[in-house]
């Protein structure tokens, strides 16, 4: 396996990639999709032991993971000061002395993700950087507000400066097998986003089966999703390896048939550096190096960065530090 090095892990200029324009809904393709749950679960169970990276290589992979984090705060008690602190952390996610020891310059996270009400604050705090602001939208997390309000919410966040919109699909459409309605909903959301990229949150823990996950993934990509994302982080079950395997293979099938690459974002429940390494190795195995860049892969996380920073300090100094030395802001 080709390893990531310190040089390849820094945020490099992105390859110009045509945006997924979507396609007409192909119900024959959707209905032909199946999922062998037992085989998927067996394969997923082997993933943590399939790849092992140590020392400098592990530090490089962890730096790559940082560059792919959507640093997130989605709490009812969010304040402007909290968001500004989060944006400061996004600008410099690792302490300067550790970056010097690692030989890593210019490392930032992939994006900052907030509710609509905090978009303008985040945009202002990130001025002068290339870090985009992502806004959760469409009645996040349940997606049950009136449809015209969900569409209007997207427009308001784009107007406020959000470059990425994380929308939630209507789970009932998947559970009822109403693929045309799901396609139409997703297409409307995509159109409302304009130039802002759209991440379709499937809320996979509420879709019932892996087959539903696979079919919903495909329909959202047909409707023009730039990313497909596992979860809101608010469900009882969020990102898992079996679900990730299903969604990643749907991305691969779509790419092979259409020539368009769609990104992937696991969200919720990924809080340890070792888990991030597993997801990175899964992306590399299934989709290749192109999907190891932040325009194709993101972690939706709020606490992952702290554990990665602790691991990097251990690599640089030989000692683990207390969590409070790596505050979120």
Notable characteristics:
14 helices; alpha/beta; 329 residues; TIM Barrel; 8-stranded parallel beta sheet; disordered N terminus; globular
Terminal Cα separation, in Å? 36 Å
Low-confidence stretches: 1-13
What is the N-to-C order of secondary-structure elements (H for helix, E for strand)? HHHHEHHEHEHEHHEHEHEHEH
Fold-level CATH name = TIM Barrel
What is the top-level CATH class?
A: Alpha Beta
Q: What sort of overall outline do the alpha carbons produce when their principal axes are compared? A: globular
For the record, what is the CATH homologous superfamily label? Aldolase class I
**Helix percent band:** 40-55%
Count, helices: 14
Number of DSSP E strands: 8
Overall SS class:
alpha/beta
With strands numbered from the N-terminus, the spatial order across the biggest sheet is 7-6-5-4-3-2-1-8
How many distinct domains? 1
Tell me what the CATH architecture is.
Alpha-Beta Barrel
**How large, in whole angstroms, is the Cα Rg?**
19 Å
Report the oligomer: single chain
The major pleated sheet works out as: 8 strands, parallel
Report the β-strand fraction as a percent range: 5-15%
